[in-house]
Amino acid sequence: MDRNGGGSEPAALIDLLGDWSAAEGPLYRRLTEAFVAAVRAGDLRAGDRLPSERRLADALSLSRATVVAAYDALRGSGLVETRRGSGTRVAGGAAAHRAPADGRVPGGQATALFQRLVTQPPDVISLGQAAEAGGPDLAGALLDLVRADLPGLVRDTGYHPAGLPALRAAIADHHTAHGLPTVPEQVLVTTGATQAVTLSAQLYLGRGSTAVVESPGWPGCVDVLRAAGARLVGVGLDPDGIRVDRLAAALAEHRPALLYVMPTYHNPTGTLMSAGRRRRVAELAAEHGVTVLEDSAHAAALAPGQAPPPIGATPAGGTVLTVGSLTKAVWGGLRLGWVRAPRDAVARLARLKAVSDLGSAVLDQALAARLLPTLSGLAPARDRARREQLAAMAGLLSARLPDWRWREPDGGSVLWVRLPPGTDARVYAQLALRHGAEVVPGATMDPSGAHDDHLRLPYSFPPETAAALVDRLAAAWAALPGRRER
User: Fold this and answer.
1) According to the model, what pLDDT value does residue 132 have?
2) Using an 8 Å Cβ cutoff, are 437 and 476 in contact?
3) How confident is the model at residue 80 (pLDDT cuts 50, 70, 90)?
4) Of 26, 97, 331, 444, which is most buried, counting CB atoms within 10 Å of its CB?
């Protein structure tokens, strides 16, 4: 849709409509209800122009008759109106339209990936989260915490906006062991890595500012930077990480306030940025006076020496904030992250954190303090399990979807899959969802909307789930209109 009377873009509308095709009932009715929800959420407003029936049908991989029926229903309810020469638009007064009968809460501007955590249908296999169940080490540490630490913890006030001292010390020791000398005063504990990025964006960005990001990148963090008011400039990657020639040009031309990178097992490409590339990124940022926000959410699961030291370890003289997390190393349900930064930056971030929530949950922090020192010893076993999962998924894809291509990731838990030439991953995603698989199209991971022939595919599923997933993906691929056979 558009608000300026120009050509309408189905791709933007697809994001607003969300998971409509995973609902129950006839397709045209599901699509109709998705439009109603988008209007009630304020994502579609009076005067917005909708795509033509044919263009929307192509983008959603539907028959034109289905879209015609949905538009007819919307016109009949007064939600939209069609006029010769100006197309179909949301009607005036549409915001007062009755909410859908199923009582869904519209997602507003929230990233569709996060909204699906709330509305995920139980029979859909989601590729939106690359997460695994917690291991037995987690349960053992929790029992030890209850026996040994709980009596002392409950005698405390429970308010530690900068973080539980024991956890700040454990994080400082962790970074020091991985080549980044750190003291506890340089650590702020957060409720997950996303809060760490959010607080950093609040501190360094504002309306009209610019942030340079990797392209592609993780859309959740891209949305956080946008929400802070920043304009995003994407820089591509090569096998060593973000391209320094294009980075240098972007820093010189756009004079950004922040550079956001993911050097250790980049999401979604799985690239491990080389030591030389990290050093050059730090030097360029210092030269241009740009703060670096390095997201190292995967690094906590690694043993010392398994990856190069963080960008913050380079003595280039610039400001570097290093974000860490236990989500990938321990369990997604342990919402513990942190920022390692210069002391003055940590003090300013701590004030923002205190205003936000007065501090993260103390029992979770105490558990994290017990677990963090043990993670390096678990790294070899975790790496073996990751390689087995990767080999299993690669075998399934090669057998069922031989036209798909990917570069073996250096690490992490996702494949960055390239579809055959001419394939639009957004269109395929609509079909996949109707076959019970939620696909993340590559265009949602690029600030410019490029990489629309890619998709992000986690491989950290149990064997039976992985097999069912590939069955669904293959069935959707076979149903894709216009697909060329090998």
Assistant:
1) 73
2) yes
3) confident
4) 444
CB proximity list for 20: less than 8 A, separation 6 or greater: 30, 31, 33, 34
Confidence of residue 485 (pLDDT cuts 50, 70, 90): very low
- Take residue 167 and report the two structure tokens written for it: 């956890």
Q: Is the pTM of this model over 0.70?
A: yes
CATH fit for domain 136-375, picks 3.40.630.40, 3.40.30.10, 2.60.120.200, 3.40.640.10: 3.40.640.10
Give the CA-trace dihedral at 423, 424, 427, 429, to 10 degrees.
90
Residues 6+ apart with CB under 8 A from 395: none
With beta carbons less than 8 A apart as the criterion, state whether 128 and 326 touch: no
Query: Does residue 471 sit in helix, strand or coil?
Result: helix
- Which CATH code for domain 377-478? 3.90.1150.10
DSSP conformation class of 149: I
Instruction: Give the number of other CB atoms < 10 A from CB of residue 207.
Output: 8
Cα 359 → chain centroid: 24
Q: What is the pLDDT of residue 93?
A: 65
DSSP type of residue 320: E
Token pair of 255, please? 């004079």
Class of domain 10-107: mainly alpha
| pLDDT value at residue 5 | 44
> Which residue in the block uniquely carries the two structure tokens 């990751």?
386
Distance, CA of 389 to CA of 406 (rounded, Å)? 15
Query: What residue has token string 């501007």?
Result: 109
* Residues whose CB is less than 8 angstroms from the CB of residue 432 and which lie 6 or more positions away in sequence, other chains included: 438, 439, 472, 473, 476
pLDDT of residue 435: 92
| DSSP-derived 3-state class of residue 323 | strand
Residue 277 tokens read as 């590339």
Q: CA-CA distance, 224 to 409, in Å (whole number)?
A: 26
